[in-house]
Amino acid sequence: MSAPVKHPMNPWNHDVAKDEEDLIDVQVDGDWVKMPRGLNVVEVAHRMKKFIPHYCYHPKLSVVGNCRMCLFEMGTPKMGPDRQPVLGKDGKPEIAWMPRPQIGCATGITPGMGIRTDSALVKDCRNGVMEFLLINHPLDCPICDQAGECKLQEYSVEYGTGGSRFVEDKVKKPKNVDLGERIVLDDERCILCSRCVRFSSELTKDNVLGFVNRGSHSTLTAYPGKSFDNDYSLNTVDICPVGALTSKDFRFQMRVWFLKETKSLCASCGTGCNVTIGSRERKVYRLTPRENESVNSRWMCDHGRLNFHYLEDQNRLQQPLLRAAGEQFPGSWVDALNRAAEGLKKVKPQEIAVVASARMTNEELFVLKRMLEELGVTQVDTVYRPGQADKFLRNADGNPNTRGAELLGISQGGRKLGSWAGEIAAGKIKALLVLGGEDVVKAGIPESALAKLEMLIASGILPNATTQASHVVLPGAGFAEKSGSMVNVHGRLQRFSRAIAAPGQAREDWMILRDLRETLTGGNSLHSIEDVWKAMAAAVPALQGLSWAKIGDQGVDLGSSKPVAVSAKP
Amino acid sequence: MAAKERRLILKHVDAPGYTPDISCYRKHGGYENLKKGLAMGANAIREEVKKSQLRGRGGAGFSTGMKWSFIDPAKVTKPIYLICNADESEPGTFKDRQIIHKDPHQLLEGMILSCFANGVKLAYLYIRCEFTTGWKVLEKAIAEAKAAGFLGQNILNSGYDLEIHVHRGAGAYICGEETGLIESLEGKRAYPRIKPPYFPAVLGLYMCPTIVNNVETLCNVKHIVEVGGDAFAKIGRPNNTGTRILCVSGDVVKPGYYEFACGDLTLGELIHEVCGGVRDGNRIKAVIPGGSSAKVLRAGEVYKFKQKGPDGAMVDVQMKLEDIPLDFDSLAAVGSMAGSGGIIVMDHKRDMVECLANIAGFYAHESCGQCTPCREGVLWMKKILARISEGHGRDADPELLKDVADKIAGRTICAFGEAAAWPVQSFIAKFKEEFSMRIRRNGTAAKKDIVSLIH
Amino acid sequence: MSLPLEAGTENCAGAEKGEIPADLVRKADEIVKQYPASRRSAVLPLLHLWQEQFGYIGPRGVEWISQKLELQEIQVLELVTFYPWFRQRPYGRFHFRVCRTLPCALGGAGKTFAALEKLMGVKGDPHHGALVSEDGSFSLEYAECLASCGTAPVILCNDDFYEKVDEARAAELVAACK
Fold this sequence. Notes:
Largest sheet of chain A: 7 strands, mixed
Structural class of chain C: alpha+beta
Number of helices of chain A: 15
Strand order of the largest sheet of chain C: 2-3-1-4-5
Largest sheet of chain C: 5 strands, mixed
Distance between the termini of chain C: 15 Å
Oligomer: heterotrimer
Structural class of chain A: alpha+beta
């Protein structure tokens, strides 16, 4: 196992021992194993593929030990009169078991410790906690979003008694509380584990949540008039073990057991947080963070998390468009690609400029590069996009693949675009290929210049001023609709997979470029994504020896430790 | 024949003409032991406290010498804090009240000596806010002590500095739990901390080494400095040394506070001789011997346990309720505890269901709500008992109450879980037939002659 | 035997608006100095100070104290609602607290409470905060053990403590509240 990484955003990393090499012997359910000293019992069990149920414990938050679900039976070595452990026949210390159970989350292992995760005492403890948690809990399962991923449901089946002996009146608390712009709170469902309070306080340094009242009437709340709005608020919905905190965006939209889960990446900035896309049929319902301690740990920002609804914008480009008589008409892919190729062949290579995008995948950029090499086109750049950097995950680079674009020789940091406006006006650039949904009007090339072009080809997913001025529009795929790889600002190569099909006749962009290349130059060596990868790995020194499979689900550090200095605005 | 009171701590309390001001205190030898202690040195004081075998008087009875030994002032770089726990809230207990209101300088002197012994420069006196007069008395006493040079900078030219501030609580019993108190002092909800790792001796107030001691315990330190640890240890019995202030309330003729050497007195002597017997000529039915958290004892019980005999061997002992000596070990041996010294007597006219329901109401109100078994289970027990009291009990209720209590005790963050569970476990176990009868007689008719004690 | 019962604060009106008395600010600063290691420790004493001045702790109290101690408001509200001594609405000028815990209950606290209820003319469910008389002169609530079980039943009237308060004594006390 490679050395565990600790993400700087986390004040705690209880899943990583202080010294992973300092191994001691402990007995777990009768078996002696070697584990790092001081690791807590919940993590020890986890590493042994056993599971100690818990609610309030979270490896990245402070340990509070309030749910009492992780109680286990603990033993210590029997000491002899010589103050040395008494050894059994197997040469290992004999264990004296303590009648009082201990919480696993707060117990760090010591040499010779005995741990029972499944004894009669432990079962009774869990029965007790489950019954207690359910006595005031509302019977909301049929209307609660958490169903299907609710720890109360799961553990009551696994560790509960199956019945309730409670016949009193339940404690009533506010339901449907508007806690923040993006979160609804149901106080009755809350089991007061305090994960959300600790997350907000310890990770985002925002003490906006707290508990009012006392005892069984304790209630989670924000201060009246204040709102839980920080840009990481939705992470608390992830870590809430029950349906107390729900996302307004996802609430009542879809039952989680219908969601297909696809490993992907957030494309909203250069950090490249790892995500899981929850989709069904042709619709994305939610994004949730996917664990990667080298990138985003278990978190993502609210902005990126909710930035997918544009995929179902009703104005999505779904068909190729061709301009005729001042208007755009839907056409076939063959016609569109032919028209585009014709237009590009009519002019000289030095009269062609390409506005690529640092939102494009490495594969798309590589096919583009091949095509441009074959055409002899040298004028290519990407569009600079500022992000809203914060102290946690969000990066100042608003593009997810600036490093990839630089690596593949496509990007000049967006500095070229400024001069191209003039050269178009002067007639030196006669054809412009705009990719990745970029809107060059916003990037500094006005419509008046675009009108002068003999051929303007745009590929993207949403209509904009550029596509509206184009002669040929090629509908592409959003990030959830394609597979590919990107390199984040810290030089990490990561891959993501397609979750849903692009709508209508829109296509994955690398295929569009492959076909355009074939139409233009006849080159058809890059037929499949594997071909692309082989060629790319051979051509780019940083990618030597890598393959799609080798990237894995956690990505690969390409060895460049310096985060890219975001190119100066042109 | 009952032994006589030994008023060591309560020597001047209620004495005619004795006032809480410093001049009166000094007239009676006050602050002489501070001078003595400063001259002895901190290590020597700690040694004497160890030799004295003094046990905490707040309820846990933990060895004070051992508690202090967890901190070595020579090795600690963080500031060391001492907090006087004056949050007296255990039902049945009212001894610290007397000391605070009537002899505050005794507490101060003991506290200053304890601070000096443990390298403490800044100490807090956490007093329950309901002692409004006591607060003012203590603030005045501190000002007087400062003015006289017994507190503040360079005390009595010894080079030792100490500031003491009074900090008022705000009505939460859980602030009597040492880590709950620390959280409260830090300005937070009084949520007790998990131990490990937050042992006050290591990670206490502001995560610095901290000692929390009860009012009566600190007063005893002064006496230990005065007579020495060995002499102090001769009072009472081995491992149960010194005196205890016993607080008696409930159905006795003369309720009140009385100080005796540990084990000098039996429960029967206390109730029948010192407190004038049960009111109205009634008979004892039940006694809670150590604050409401202590397990109840039933009249007529005979306790069988093993005890160390005079020759050191373990012998079988049988003991009636009336014969229990009022020291820590004996009360533990009979299945209860000395606790805070609050002895509540209930006579044969009292309804045990009502008594338990009242106690359960107390714990339900005071639960901080942090951990699952206490937060949910303690209110559940109260609701069941209220329902039985209202006349809607079910046959399964006594067994249910016991099981709920069993699933709380030993499974919570702090001892409040046990404190809430033990009364339920012991009342149900010892007065089983009363609960069954009450449930069988359900309905409003059953409530007619019963004085409701639930509020 | 006259009982100089001091009326509680009459300043409730100043709680939410108007100038905060300079004296209160000065006292607050003094209090903060007692906790050099952490300003936050001053929150309980400041809450007492505010309640003593204005009779209760409303939104302005929470906000003023949280600003002074560099906390977020919820961190102060958490405490106002956790500790029963603090209230978020004005109570009567004479606020009575009757201990309900076992020794006082055995001593007749229930009767004392009922008597006070009648004398004060208050009604309501004591589980939802104090019962306040219509003219605002009296309020009544239960408290838990006040640590004087030997002289049960005991009560507090504002800051003053009274022992052995049976129904007759209760009537005397109420009569002495002007």
